[in-house]
Amino acid sequence: MTNSLKNRIIVLCVGLVLLTTMVSIVSFWWSTSKFQEEKVNQDISVAQNVYKQYLSAKESLLLTAAKVLTADFGFKQAVATRDAGTISSVLFNHSQRIDAELMLLIDLSGKLISANTNADLYPQNLKPLLDELLTSPEQSSFVVLNNQLYQVILLPVRAPRTVAYSLVGFKIDDEVALELKNLTGMDVSFIAEQDNLVRSSLLNRPEVFSPKNYFNTTTTTRLFGDYPVYKNQDIMLPSLQGDAVTILLSADLTQSYNDFENLLFTLIIMAILTMLVGVITSSLLANNLTTPLSQLAVIARQFAQGNYAFEFNASKQSTEIATLANAFDNMGNDINEREQKISFQARHDSLTGFYNRSAMLEVLDDELTPSTQYTLVAIDIKGLRHINDKLGPRVGDECLKAVANRISGFSDELGGFHARIGGDEFLTVFPSAAAREKKSGIVGLMAQLLACYTIKTLKINLRFSAGVVEYPMQGLASDDLMRRVLIAVDNATDSQDSIHYYQNGEDEAHLDRLKMLDELKQAISDDDDDGQLFMTYQPKLHLHTQKINKVESLIRWQRKDGSWVNPELFIDLAEQSGLIVELTSWVVNTVVSQVADWQAKGIEMQAAINVSAQDIASPSFHSALVRTLKKYNVDPTLITVELTERDMIENEEKGIKALQNLKAIGVKISLDDYGVGQTSLGRLKMLPIDELKLDKCFILKLDESRKDQYIVQSSITLGHQLGFSVVAEGVENRDSLDLLKLMHCDHAQGYYLSRPLKAELLEQWLKEYYEKS
Question: How far are the Cα atoms of 575, 666, 684, 766 from residue 655, in angstroms, in the given order?
Fold first, then answer.
């Protein structure tokens, strides 16, 4: 079910929600991080501005206080007179008024004159400090005095010339740093690195406190790892050379982290809720879509089982589903109609509407009951092929329909049924008693069929052969009945009778022929194993030279049980079953290989092979013969193909072309059984033959019959005049042989000379023949 449409829809919807959520989270993460970074940078920038304004205000206050002090006439007079008491009192009082922690009076040499506090706390020689401060007149600087950090400003005391310098300063301590923190929201640290002096707003400090180390390395563990607590910014303060003082601004990022994580958790919770809603919604959507599809699948399975009345039951479906359901319903109706049509066509002949052969077998099993006698009549239309050839297939089809109408007209009234079991064969079955009473039985049926037909204004008389089987006396099973009625109609055709009633034993004889045919197939394939099939050779005497230079190859078959099969019988079976081509191929291979063997032994012998009409018509016969001759390296002139007048007449145009192709490679052509067929002299001159073979009916009693002598003499003369050699078969005595020699016949064969012999016996016979002569 993991590959179901429902699951795919749910996975798709949830996947889209999940993808959207992930994109949102990543986007939120990136934008929030950027925002927090920009906010911190902005806060630091604001803090810098606040610091600058704060120091500027302090500097202005210092400058004002210093100017007031240095401008005081009494103070300048006291300085000029070096009135220590007045100087000290003025410095103290003035420092109290402006809350200045540092207020010093220094002479021009840099020596401390007086201070607002205990002067012993300060260096007596302030010359270096004085020199540096004088480089930035009226500007504040940060200095370390007595291990205290001050923001100071230096102004000269003029009376009217400069008589001393006044140094005024504010003390920078932790309270100042804390005040700046309150103003900026950031921790502030004043660092005098040379004096290792630190003033910081950080209240909870470690015992060993280094602001830069502390604020740069302190981390906090958050959801996705450890992060720095502070973002720091160094600001250089105006101070003495070699005694640099800096401010370290430290923005605390903890709250930003908390805000970010809170927003992230909120977004995740919303994403989870969205996914739950997506799962529920997609499940409902999938159910709404796949439920009708599942019902449609059920309908399809019902259609597959032939239930086309199954209906689609669903409400509130989409227009597309409703359209699909209607299409399924229409498809079911169409399939039902086509199936019924196909079913009818599968059981009935399309031309006549009769049952076909396979359907007729089923009908026989269903309809026939031993309690009622039925007559089965197989009807074969004679000469229908000639009607098709001469008048066209449409006329032939109309003939078939007309015959079918007469059969149904005869049989339908009796409650019978019919089938077309072949191209020109019908089978009708009807109750025997009713047919005798109402329709005069088989005679009445044949009389009705033989009446003249009018087809497309043409008057056509048809001839028929009929085979009759009685049920249940002559069979019960449908297969047996069908086989026996076909045997009966075949016997009617063979015997030139219009009606043949099946006789008990004919089926067994037919089955024997089928068994014999199977054994013949096996004998051909097992030739090298058991040798049931073998060739014999009857010598032909050249009457002028008295040499044996030709033989006729004759096939023989001795079955495994030792019984012999008449060649005419099994060759006829082979022709009827289509096995003759395979049998002839075996004969050709055997004979050509034997001729090659005789050549190797020094015996130059021309062998004649009998072929059938099917062999001549086969497109593979010529190529197979050529391959065999090449295989055994045999000259084609040593092979003669014998065929009868009947074969030539049935396949005249095609046969002539095939014979011409054989003559082109050197093979000799002999016309067998001449004189008893239907070959006219006009056709004889057209045939590409080399030899005439007179039928034995003229030769057997040649010495006794003057008529036979006239026929043979004229045939020999005619054959020679047409350029043919002439062979007489059936020579039974010396007198007939002498007559043939006198008539200048070319070759003679018959039992007087020798019966057909196997190859090794023929070789022995040849040896004895030449020894006698």
Answer: 17, 17, 13, 35
Nearest partner of 284 among 316, 242, 319, judged by Cα:
316
Mean pLDDT score, 682-707: 88
In eight-state DSSP terms, residue 202 is -
Q: How many C-beta atoms surround the C-beta of residue 668 within 10 A?
A: 20
Residue with tokens 């925002």: 35
- E-only strand ranges, 140-242: 141-145, 148-158, 162-172, 187-192, 197-200, 219-222, 225-228, 230-240
Sequence-separated (6 or more) residues with CB below 8 Å from residue 732: 699, 700, 750, 751, 752
What mean pLDDT comes out for the span 181-200? 80
Spatial neighbors of 475 by CB under 8 A, at least 6 apart, are 469, 481, 484
Q: How far apart are CA 241 and CA 434, in angstroms?
A: 146
Q: Containing H/E element for 772?
A: helix 759-772
Cα–Cα dist 153/516, whole Å: 142
The whole model's pTM is what? 0.51
pLDDT at position 348 over 90: no
**199, 209 contact by CB (below 8 A):** no
pLDDT-based confidence at residue 308 (cuts at 50, 70, 90): low
Q: 403, 381 in Cβ contact below 8 A?
A: yes
Q: Rounded to 5 degrees, what angle do the CA atoms 206, 209, 210 make?
A: 145
| Phi and psi at residue 252, to the nearest 5° | -80, 120
Q: What pLDDT, on the 0 to 100 scale, is given for residue 276?
A: 84
| CB distance 115 to 105 below 8 Å | yes
Cβ 699 vs Cβ 712: under 8 Å: yes
Q: Which helix (H) or strand (E) holds 429?
A: strand 425-431
pLDDT of amino acid 759? 93
Cis geometry, peptide bond prior to residue 160 (ω within 30 degrees of 0): yes
Angle at 485 between CA 511 and CA 354, to 5 degrees: 130
- The burial of 557, by beta-carbon neighbours within 10 Å (0-12 exposed, 13-18 middle, 19 or more buried), is given as buried
Tracing tokens 């039985």 back to the chain, one arrives at 441
* Other CB atoms within 10 Å distance of the CB of residue 285: 14
How much is the mean pLDDT over the chain? 83
129 vs 701, more confident:
701
- CA angle (455 as vertex; 452, 456 as ends), nearest 5: 145
Tokens matching residue 444: 């009445």
C-alpha closest to that of 235 among 222, 246, 220, 221: 246
**Given strand 197-200, what is the order of strands in its sheet?**
112-115, 102-106, 162-172, 148-158, 141-145, 230-240, 243-252, 187-192, 197-200
Q: How confident is the model at residue 655 (pLDDT cuts 50, 70, 90)?
A: confident
> 352 Cβ partners below 8 Å, 6+ apart?
400, 401, 404, 420
